[in-house]
Specification:
This protein is α+β, with helices and mostly antiparallel strands. Helix content is 32%, strand content 24%.
């Protein structure tokens, strides 16, 4: 993905999808992963089980690039789990593309993970000292080695080993673990990452987002609760609590940016949440203007909400080119400047001579916000008032979002006037933290990247960040 697009976009680590008890499970998993493609574009994989035999296809690239028809034809059976990846901990490379597969005398299994483990360094050292050999640099593999490490658990059902392993890890996660006979769906005790269960015919599906259920015709059943393991097998659904410490601190950026607008996260529709943030943004920071323009795509719902609340017309003042290549190269500064116009283009006849309220979901590095404001002015906008449907991003995230240093965050060391001057807009305002709770009708959210109040212990992460001058 090109440098300019990275300036614009935050990235979440990945998405998981699983199918149990449904014919052609791998084909359904393919469609589910396609619906979750927005959660990761660097790699994808599917593991299926047929008569106790595990088969896998994985590769780097988009779902449609990795899975050709002949590859899917070899993935038979009525059980499968899949994964789309955006690399954070461990970096890229085919060895880090999931699901992982493991051979063990207690039974083979496969594993897929969404999130980030904050104590993975300590656990990896511990496991390697006990003789574990890692086949990847991903933190996700740590859980598999924890499950296998205790020989005293070998004679017991695997759920006991999973419970013990989950109680050793710290961080944000949604895990799918598939054995020869069942799928375990596991969610972190803080509720930082989403995971939902749906019904399809006589079987079940599990997904990072409910939008994937619509694609395959599944009916939503319920969310996996924080601190819960849901076992899915021929007996149906069975629940095991691995932790009594349960919070509902869903990552606010799931609602603000990551999730698809047609997904429901913990009974709250993402589009409705974003639209409400737009209404609240108007209440908190209205300004005289002529039109409201949203930055495609994740800011359009908020722009609609602002428009409705203000009575100002919502206009498509920016058009997104959905077909820009992922590896577009800009060898010179001149071409890099043109690159933003390949991604986004202003509609001159709409913005010319108008006072524009520009709605965006967040400001990360600020580079693209500055370029978009400049584009609108060059297209004839008389004024540009930037309104951000989230608070200022001021802290690194250690839970699977690729902002790990202060240097990446424009608002970390600059006040509002300095940020406005750098972006070049006429006025600038951010949504309040209180409005996020109000928009979702929630009493808990993870706002660590806005406030620095991290819900989990961070172990060596803070120490390393301090040492490198990053935190």
């Amino acid at each position: 993905m090109d440098e300019l697009i990275r300036d614009r976009e935050l990235h979440e680590e990945c998405g998981v999808f699983g199918v149990f008890g449904v014919p052609n499970a791998s084909s359904l998993t393919y469609y589910g992963l396609h619906a979750l493609q927005h959660r990761g574009q660097e790699g994808a994989g599917i593991v299926c089980v047929d008569d106790g035999v595990f088969r896998r296809v994985k590769g780097e690239g988009l779902v449609t690039e990795v899975f050709k028809e002949e590859a899917l034809r070899g993935l038979t059976g009525d059980m499968a789990i899949g994964h789309v990846r955006y690399a954070t901990t461990g970096g890229g490379g085919i060895e880090n593309v999931q699901p992982f597969m493991f051979r063990h005398n207690s039974g083979d299994f496969a594993l897929a993970h969404n999130g980030n483990l904050v104590n993975s360094v300590q656990l990896r050292d511990y496991l390697e000292n006990k003789g574990s050999l890692f086949q990847s640099s991903s933190d996700s593999e740590v859980l598999a080695h924890l499950i296998k490490k205790e020989t005293r658990s070998a004679h017991r059902p695997r759920i006991h080993s999973i419970v013990e392993a989950l109680n050793m890890i710290e961080g944000a996660f949604a895990f799918l673990i598939m054995t020869a006979n069942r799928i375990y769906a596991c969610r972190d005790k803080y509720g930082l990452r989403p995971l939902s269960i749906g019904r399809l015919g006589d079987g079940y599906v599990v997904s990072s987002e409910t939008c994937a259920f619509e694609v395959i015709g599944a009916e939503f059943v319920r969310d996996v609760a924080p601190g819960e393991i849901v076992t899915i097998d021929r007996h149906g659904l069975r629940s095991t609590d691995y932790s009594m410490y349960k919070r509902h601190q869903m990552c606010a950026m799931e609602y603000i940016y990551f999730a698809r607008p047609d997904s429901d996260i913990e009974s709250c529709n993402v589009h409705a949440f974003r639209k409400e943030t737009g209404r609240l943004l108007f209440e908190e920071s209205h300004v005289d203007a002529d039109i409201v323009v949203g930055v495609p795509d994740s800011s359009l719902s908020a722009a609609m909400g602002y428009s409705e609340a203000s009575g100002l017309p919502y206009e498509m003042g920016l058009i997104k080119n959905k077909y820009i290549g992922r590896t577009f190269i800009q060898p010179s500064q001149e071409l890099r400047e043109k690159g933003v116009r390949m991604k986004l283009a202003p509609v001159r006849s709409i913005v010319r001579g108008r006072r524009v309220i520009l709605i965006d979901d967040s400001v990360v590095r600020g580079t693209t916000s500055r370029r978009i404001v400049k584009m609108l002015r060059e297209a004839g906008a008389r004024e540009v008032h930037l309104r951000i449907a989230s608070p200022p991003l001021t802290r690194p995230c250690f839970y699977g979002v690729d902002i790990s240093t202060y240097e990446e965050l424009l608002c970390a060391r600059k006040n509002l006037d300095e940020v406005r001057a750098l972006i070049g807009c006429d006025t600038l305002a951010f949504l309040s933290k209180e409005a996020l709770f109000k928009a979702g009708g929630r009493s808990e959210l993870c706002l660590a990247c806005f406030t620095g109040h991290y819900p989990t212990a961070l172990y060596r992460r803070i120490e390393e960040a301090n040492k490198d001058g990053k935190f």
